[in-house]
Amino acid sequence: MPSMIAYLTRVLKTPTIGAFWEELAGQARDENWSHEEYLAALLQRQVADRESKGTVMRIRTAHFPTVKTLEDFNLDHLPSLRRDVLAHLATSTYVAKAENVILLGPPGLGKTHLAIALGVKATQAGHSVLFDTASNWITRLAEAHHAGRLEAELKKIRRYKLIIIDEVGYIPFDQDAANLFFQLIASRYEQGSVMVTSNLPFGRWGETFSDDVVAAAMIDRLVHHAEVLTLTGDSYRTRQRRELLNKDNRTNHN
After folding, report:
1. Are the C-beta atoms of 233 and 77 separated by less than 8 Å?
2. Residue 96: CATH number of its domain
3. Residues 107 and 197 in one domain
4. Structural domain tally of the chain?
5. What is the reported pLDDT for 249?
6. What's the pLDDT band for 120 if we cut at 50, 70, 90?
7. Which residue of 6, 24, 97, 102 has the lowest C-beta tally within 10 Å?
8. C-alpha distances in angstroms, 76 versus 15, 228, 247?
9. Sign (positive/negative) of CA torsion 240, 241, 246, 251?
């Protein structure tokens, strides 16, 4: 019987069942489980294992610069951030509806941390995610454009349920770059989710994209089905510096 089960689990590609059926069978006998309870426990173990491996793979292919979680994020310094909205976004239901998330606010408030953390939540919910900075997205599209395969590249990107574009506004784009960026946003409109972080309010996006008309058309598509979070508060770095100064002052006074 063991060799038969080993063979069958190999054919079915269910290695977890192959590894645990015996141990769980012993537990089932000891605790008088029904056949159905034993079967359910075995299948649950296999599914849990597969899902956790899937999440690990999706996190790897998302290319996050570092893995951050919502649990690690200190919400106390961002009183402006609505907890109910964040809790809703953490469920990742917006991804299934191809809706967008825009995080606006000055540098140092943790926009990138939040974007990565929400991206990780999306991978845990079974969605494919791809993360990069705005300038890297442009480089990728420009290379595809010059090679004559922009359409193919946009199609490839469309396979990802959620793309995260970090740091819009840090580096201004010329007109060609702005047009490429617009095509990226337009290609995902009502097809796939986009998450954007920017240090600039929408009113100043024309400066980044060197064209108010292109910026307005892009914002239009982004916010049509979107949750826009405008963050205000103390920057991490400013706060840390202030805490250090206070600490030094206390030390000097003592």
Report:
1. yes
2. 3.40.50.300
3. yes
4. 2
5. 66
6. very high
7. 97
8. 44, 20, 21
9. positive
Query: Do 50 and 81 reside in the same domain of the chain?
Result: no
Could you identify the residue written with the tokens 């970090």?
166
In the block, residue with structure tokens 């926009």: 111
Say if pTM beats, i.e. exceeds, 0.85.
Answer: no
Average pLDDT, the chain: 92
> Is residue 146 assigned to a domain?
yes
Give the range of the structural domain holding residue 104, as residue numbers without chain letter.
75-238
Nearest to 91, CA basis, from 78, 77, 104, 101: 101
Render pLDDT for 11-68 as a digit per residue (tens, 0 to 9). 999 998 999 999 999 999 999 999 999 999 999 999 888 888 999 999 999 999 999 9
Shared domain for 98 and 172, answered yes or no, is yes
Residue 245 pLDDT > 80: no
Give the integer Cα–Cα distance in Å for 31 and 167. Answer: 56
Nearest-Å Rg of the Cα atoms of the chain is 24
Residues 106, 145 within the same domain: yes
What 66-75 contacts at long range (C-beta under 8 Å, 24+ apart), as own/partner pairs, is 66/116, 67/116, 67/120, 68/113, 68/116, 68/117, 68/120, 69/117, 69/120, 70/114, 70/117, 70/118, 70/121, 72/113, 72/117, 73/110, 73/113, 73/114, 73/117, 74/110
Rounded CA gap, 22 and 95, in Å? 40
